[in-house]
Amino acid sequence: MDDKLKDPSATKRLRTDAAGIAAAADSLRAGGLVAFPTETVYGLGADATDGRAVAAIYAAKGRPSFNPLIAHVATVEAALALGEFDADAEALARAFWPGPLTLVVPMAAGAGISDLARAGLDTVGLRVPSHPVAQALLTAAGRPIAAPSANRSGHVSPTTADHVLDDLDGRIDAVVDGGATEVGVESTIVACLGGAPVLLRPGGVPREAIEKVIGRPLTASTGEATIAPGMLASHYAPQAGLRLDVMAPAPGEALLAFGRDVPVADGPVLNLSPSGDLAEAAANLFGHLRTLDAAAACGIAVMPIPGEGLGEAIRDRLARAAAPRS
Ligand code: AMP
Ligand code: MG
Description:
By secondary structure, this protein is of the alpha/beta class. The protein has helices at about 1-5, 20-30, 50-60, 75-80, 85-95, 130-140, 160-170, 205-215, 280-295, 310-320; strands spanning about 10-15, 35, 40-45, 70, 100-105, 125, 145, 175, 190, 200, 220, 240-245, 255, 270, 300. One of its GO terms (biological process) is regulation of translational fidelity.
């Protein structure tokens, strides 16, 4: 990733012919970053099952915090295998996929979506896009592809390959140039987690069309039930107390370490990245937190993590996990 960040000619513009799609799919399967058109906006794709590849999305976008990402697959059947769909969720899937609808459902056992792509949640956001280029690429990749909008954090979503390159040239492996996208607004997000489906974000599929399929009004997302972008009130948070920037863990405290110089600890120790690699640390973050949370008798001490690059998002997540909760 560092090499790519320095080389402004590293991003290939690929055609939508068979050779272009094959090259894009190969790159995705090798852990690369490939932007591609969907019927909403251009997405920045990475293998959703590969935490390192997902970490690279955050590095390329310069996103200062981890949000759950949508996993894209080519077919309704592939999506149904990745989640636990209740009757409403399955009806919505069959009515609107392929199309601009994202369904948030509990992840199926063994689905393998990396916990960084889920921001540590037990749920997964799934979508089957209808754009023919997205369809071809997802079919060729043969695995779920995490794909937030292909722009730098804080910039507007791209609807052409030129927009993508304006923001990300030299930071990603390739963009598949499929011309201008049609809708330009993002997917509608509906959570089906037992009980009434909840509208998390309005988007390409109108609320009325969804309500017609489920035969009742959508619940608005409010307060603690909210799992919407940015708000994420029910984001994964460890039970154990966290202390940040600790060089000397207290007796019995678990230690979330980073880098080579790890202090002596008498509690359980897990290292986010012994070599001090922030992408590896991001990929390990949620899994290590969960493991230490289950093992920790008296809290988790976290070693200092540098604040640059992906470190900003890692520190943001840890600071939120350490904040007092009501
Ligand atoms: P986008 O900005 O189009 O990439 O959509 C990302 C948004 O999808 C996130 O900010 C969440 O609101 C939503 N999302 C994806 N996965 C989940 C999930 N597992 N739980 C809740 N929301 C999710
Ligand atoms: Mg965006």
